[in-house]
Write a structure and sequence with these properties.
Blueprint: E1 4-7, E2 13-16, E3 34-36, E4 39-41, E5 46-50, E6 57-62, H1 66-85, H2 88-105, H3 107-118, H4 122-140, E7 147-150, E8 154-162, E9 165-169, H5 177-188, E10 192-196, H6 203-212, E11 221-223, H7 230-236, E12 242-246, H8 249-259, E13 265-269, E14 275-278, H9 285-297, E15 309-313, H10 317-329, H11 349-364, E16 368-371, E17 391-394, H12 401-404, E18 411-417, H13 420-428, E19 432-433, E20 435-439, H14 443-451, E21 457-460, E22 472-473, E23 475-476, E24 479-480, E25 482-483, H15 485-490, E26 493-501
Helix pairs in contact: 2-4, 3-4, 3-6, 4-5, 9-10
Length: 504
């Protein structure tokens, strides 16, 4: 058992967490391996990702084989009976211990690693690591509910029970916190979890799960790095009961179709074309414009709930747009180690080219750029790094790509509206429905607007800030199911109803 109690010289009970499998990571931050059945495993084939702020090659990472997948699934299935019967109180304490080891004791090194592979500014990487620890502590006291019904003849109890083996497929934009949300929910509920990081950002997840082997029994938490074959292998594997995926709509559709073959349970947190509505009663136009701009360009716009469309009341439109442009032009762009940087590079070349195409499309169609521009790239960074200066497009046509599609990068359209009904209709005119923000000095009015929006999450007087206490899910094509909160742990469970008849 991973958890034990000892008493110190004062007689106080102290909790200790000895290694459960004899593997104690030396934590070499330049060497990376899969973790299968509690042990590191290298591979005959490797690849390296790229530092997006310098274009320099990073470290070699493993390319898993189908045998690695089979071995990881077998280890998880072997660990499941014991782990699922481990008291939930112990599973919760182990999560907190793991969080302390990964995000406190090794937080500085993990943050630095995250910056290298993603190009995130220091403050963004720091927020991700801090929020990852918050997920661990949040789950410490989280418990699954039971429903009980009784009459003279019988007792009916509805319980949530673990599924078995969960594959957590993680995108490149937030490789730690999106993984830890799935890990915490999966392990707390008694499942075993196999993490698959993005090939663009494998390093922090590989190292995080390596650190976890000090805490959890072999096979409970594993990680596999790899190429484009790895995801399909996991999705098709008959020994995996659930796929929890965060990523694009197109990939989500493919996963759902493949999961149908084995009737796997799925959670799909997909893309969003998130809207921001700014009402005319906002008194602090300057401050609100700054916050809205942060919501557009946080993490260089590479977040599923970043604001992708801004609708401003006509009465304050010119004033608001000018304030938003001033703030945006003042955002410092640069590499992670530079002081005061607010905007980093786009994480990878594929996404860089996609975002540049939005710039090109708007420019060729005569849209008005009021910040940034068709080049939108720092002169000093032309040879190194996937940098794009944040851009604002003033009132492009509603049918344009910049309005209808998710940019997932540092370019955003700003449009005007003359009535609340018009703004709500425009906001809901999308195949996506992930998040939204509403800004008004009249909170009741803002909440009433929010209730009419066809999205999974609404933020009043704030840009979108996912919180582990709240369920994160989308409507329409933005996904099925979700993560975080009490509902997030239910997503990791099957439902079992026990009917007990009384003896007469």
């Amino acid at each position: 058992m991973a958890h034990s109690n000892t008493k110190d010289t004062n007689g106080t009970t102290q909790e200790t967490y000895p290694s459960t499998n004899g593997f104690k990571p030396t934590i070499d931050w330049t060497s990376f391996a899969n973790i299968i059945n509690g042990q590191p495993r290298t591979s005959s084939k490797t690849y390296h990702s790229t530092d997006p702020s310098t274009l320099e090659p990073l470290w070699e990472a493993p390319i898993s084989t189908s045998q690695d997948v089979d071995d990881a699934v077998s280890a998880a299935r072997a660990a499941f009976p014991s782990w699922s019967l481990t008291p939930v109180e112990i599973r919760a304490k182990l999560l907190v211990h793991f969080g302390k080891r990964a995000f406190h004791d090794n937080g500085e090194a993990l943050t630095a690693l995250l910056q290298r592979e993603t190009g995130k500014p220091a403050f963004v990487a720091g927020i991700e690591v801090a929020n990852s620890y918050n997920h661990c502590t949040f789950h410490e006291n989280l418990r699954l509910p039971e429903e009980r019904w009784e009459d003279d003849e019988k007792v009916i109890v509805t319980r949530y029970v673990p599924m078995g083996v969960v594959a957590a497929i993680i995108p490149w934009n937030f490789p730690i916190v999106l993984a830890i949300g799935k890990i915490c929910a999966g392990l707390l509920t008694g499942n075993c979890v196999i993490v698959k990081p993005s090939p663009f950002t494998p390093y922090s997840a590989l190292k995080m799960v390596e650190i976890a082997q000090e805490t959890f029994p072999p096979g409970v938490l594993q990680v596999l790095g790899g190429d484009d074959q790895l995801g399909p292998w996991l999705v098709a594997h008959p020994g995996i009961q659930k796929i929890n995926f965060t990523g694009s709509i197109n990939t989500g559709k493919k996963i759902m179709a493949e999961c149908a073959k084995t009737l796997k349970r799925v959670t799909l947190e997909l893309g969003g074309n998130d809207v921001c509505i700014v009402c005319e009663d906002v008194a602090d136009v300057e401050g609100t414009a700054a916050q809205v701009a942060l919501g557009c360009f946080f993490n260089t716009g590479q977040m599923c709930v970043c604001t992708k469309r801004v609708y401003v009341a006509e009465k304050i439109y010119d004033q608001f747009l000018a304030a938003m442009v001033r703030f945006t032009n003042g955002l410092k762009m640069g590499r992670p180690g530079e002081e005061g940087v607010m905007v980093g590079p786009v994480q990878n070349e594929m996404q860089f080219e996609k975002v540049k195409d939005f710039f090109k499309d708007s420019w060729e169609n005569g849209h008005k750029f009021v910040a940034g521009g068709p080049e939108a790239r720092e002169e000093s960074e032309k040879e190194k790094g996937f940098f794009l200066r944040p851009a604002i497009v003033d009132r492009p046509p509603v049918e344009s790509r910049i309005v209808q599609e998710e940019q997932f990068g540092p370019i955003v359209p700003v449009l005007s509206f003359t009535s609340v009904d018009e703004a709500i209709a425009a906001a809901n005119d999308s195949v996506m429905g992930l998040g939204a923000s509403v800004w008004s000095d009249n909170i009741a009015k803002a909440e009433a607007i929010g209730l009419r929006l066809e999205v999974g999450m609404v933020y009043v007087n704030s840009f979108e800030k996912p919180d582990c206490h709240g369920y994160m899910s989308g409507h329409k094509m933005s996904g099925i199911g979700g993560d975080s909160g009490v509902l997030g742990i239910k997503e990791m469970c099957n439902v079992q109803v026990m009917h007990t008849y009384k003896r007469r």
